[in-house]
């Protein structure tokens, strides 16, 4: 069965309050409910930005401090589960990339991004002599070199 790293909502410390979310970063089977019993709790995520210790609201307005969201993760266990094939949800992927555990995953959205990606991937405005300098040309050259190295 597929294992996923995902968020499970829990009540806030001091009782359940509306508009004060708190999430556990958990390992669970992919088909179980969001708040069902997880296999392992790997950390917590508090999406409400808080001030760092020793700063005030006026420091934020002046630009001396910045509110930060609270992410706590057992890095060793997260690395282990990712290593054995657990798949993080998109949100957990983003959180793990914030702490430097995974590479950022950029998802293109909107028609403008799609057009820009097509223009970069398949440059039609370049003459054949310049095609080798494009990314696609470099990839094709690398494939040809690898094939030549295999034959030699």
TrEMBL record:
Similarity section: Belongs to the bacterial ribosomal protein bS16 family.
Name of the featured protein: Ribosomal protein S16
Pfam families per the UniProt record, alphabetical: Ribosomal_S16
Signal peptide: none
Record-level GO BP terms: mitochondrial translation
GO molecular function annotations of the record: structural constituent of ribosome
One cellular component (GO) term of this entry: mitochondrial small ribosomal subunit
UniProt keywords, alphabetically: Ribonucleoprotein, Ribosomal protein
Source organism (scientific name): Meristemomyces frigidus
InterPro entries named in the record: Ribosomal_bS16 (IPR000307), Ribosomal_bS16_dom_sf (IPR023803)
